[in-house]
Design goal:
The chain is mainly alpha-helical. The protein has nine helices and no strands. Among the domains are: about 60 residues, no CATH class; about 60 residues. Helices cover about 70% and strands about 0% of the residues. The longest helix has 29 residues. InterPro entries: SWT1_Regulator.
Length: about 200
């Protein structure tokens, strides 16, 4: 009855309500520091800004953080675990696509960012029990990311061997060759990091 904006809510309205009632209501349910998450989501999703790959990944992580916090209160008739599973799926897909379309440096950074996520099993064990349904598809998500790495390595390898053809040796191909070779080295290092993260 006293909510700042009446339903039905748009995403922008919903985030405005969070901010308006944070101190009096939501800050008593979840850590107050999560207000920065609300502000981050509002800034990037409700102000007409274009969201790039890197920002999208951050926003998905922030969304997961918020949903995780509210899960300690309730599963909201099963809606919250379902939302968490969908956001998590989007996050993993986003990481896979980044590997394929960004430069080798950006791709390497994304794969390194995956390593701590794979090690967060202790934190995820604290989720509401219904969240464990989402855990069953975890191996498929990991496989999807690794498949993206494998495809990228294949592309780099083809690029390298094509440039070894003496008939195609020019300044441009030399630059492309070196770029592909360095990218391949970084991706291999990232794969090793992921393998160690999984084994731990």
């Amino acid at each position: 009855q006293i909510v700042y904006l009446k339903p039905p809510w748009t995403l922008a309205n919903l985030l405005k309500c969070y901010k308006k009632h944070w101190v009096a209501v939501f800050g008593h349910v979840v850590p107050r520091s999560l207000l920065s998450t609300i502000e981050c989501l509002y800034k990037h999703l409700c102000t007409g800004k274009t969201v790039d790959f890197s920002t999208a990944s951050i926003l998905l992580q922030e969304s997961k953080k918020l949903l995780h916090a509210f899960s300690s209160r309730s599963d909201y008739n099963g809606v919250l675990p379902q939302a968490y599973a969908e956001v998590n799926k989007l996050h993993q897909t986003d990481l896979s696509e980044d590997i394929m379309v960004l430069s080798e440096n950006a791709a390497c950074e994304k794969m390194e960012a995956m390593t701590p996520n794979l090690q967060n099993s202790e934190e995820e064990k604290k989720l509401h029990p219904s969240f464990h349904v989402a855990q069953e598809s975890r191996h498929q998500e990991i496989w999807s990311v690794l498949e993206g790495v494998w495809n990228t390595i294949n592309l780099y390898s083809i690029e390298i061997f094509q440039k070894l053809d003496p008939n195609a040796a020019t300044m441009t191909t030399k630059s492309s060759f070196e770029e592909a070779f360095l990218g391949l080295q970084k991706l291999l290092a990232a794969v090793n990091d992921i393998r160690e993260g999984i084994s731990r």
